[in-house]
Amino acid sequence: MDKKINYDYSKISFAGLGLIFGTAIAAALSLIITGNVIWAGVGTGVGLVVGAAIDGMKKRK
Q: d(Cα 27, Cα 46) in Å, to the nearest integer?
């Protein structure tokens, strides 16, 4: 059972990664600084926009 899995890293969606990490980072910082996670929505939006911008730049090349 020596199967080798080859991942194609060119198909990674940075918009999805930005969505996940933006939410996680904003929720954690917001919880530490203010005590509630209201700003997690802002982190979600920022992560999605930055990830989509990276995806757009990646497709141009």
A: 12
Q: What is the pLDDT, as a whole number, of residue 49?
A: 94
Radius of gyration of the chain (CA): 16
pLDDT (tens digit, 9 = 90+) per residue, 28-49? 999 999 888 888 889 999 999 9
For 17, residues 6+ apart whose C-beta sits below 8 A from its C-beta are 51
Contact 37, 8 (CB under 8 A): no
Inter-CA distances, 1 with 5, 6, 33, 60, Å: 12, 15, 50, 40
